[in-house]
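Task 17 of the worksheet. Students: predict the tertiary structure of the chain below and write it out as structure tokens. Keep your answer in the requested format; marks are given for formatting as well as content.
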Amino acid sequence: MVTKLGLKIEKHPKPYNIRWLQDGGCMKVTKRCLVSFSIGKNYKDQIWCDVMKMDACHLLLGRPWKYDRHILHDGHLNTYSFTKDGHKIILRPMHQNELAKKNQPMRDTLMTRFEVIDQINKGEPVYIAMAKEEQKQEEQFLEPRVKELITKFDDVIAEDVPMQLPPLHGIQHQIDLIPGAPLPNRAASRMNPTQQVELQKQVEELLEKGLIRESLSPCVVLALLVPKKNGTWQMSVDSRAINKITIKYRFPIPMLDDLFDQLHGAKIFSKIERIPSNSYARR
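Model answer:
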């Protein structure tokens, strides 16, 4: 909002930290700007506002404003009274009749069925927007047989990770380290408050689902957040330090041409996305 209004920003004379109660993230306030505002026709003022990233775009008049203007609050009438430039000003809450005068109806703006029929009977052009469940773009071009197959195995294709680890298999793999090699113990990467909150949220979800557990191991593997195309964050694990001291086992890799020959005649292909959280849990 500060950038859109073209307000002049300057350094805060007394920088401080602020912490949100629910998110738990900490943010440092280092800038402020002078904002001119008016309430009604009689009250115009300027106030120094601290600048920070917020989801809301409201001008918050708090204790400093009340202190500087000697504000008196009437809790019964819910009014704020003070004197400015020799004039007594009383700020009152807006009532429903005042909101109606400002063309701000209190009821829902959607039309009823009878109002729609009345507009159609008048013979005037009517445009009706109907809510419809949005379909994924890839589902719009699927053949009916493929849609039927996806519906049949809907319980197999889960959108979220199940609340438990997969069952044990006959062969259990493990990571063998070079004997006597020092275990990596690197410091955590720097993150902004938003990334710290997101990382803590994903870790708590994995703990709740039982995919990971708290460990006191001296071996530390860093967890990083990588931005995805849809705007969300994906947790990844930086295993380069542990990979350097891992015993390398060599297995024959099939020829690429042989793999393509096995796909001859196939028409339907599937894609499984790698989930870093599972690999992190198994490590």
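Marker's comment: The beta strands are 9-19, 26-39, 43-51, 72-74, 79-84, 87-91, 222-227, 233-238. Confidence is low (pLDDT under 50) at residues 275-283.
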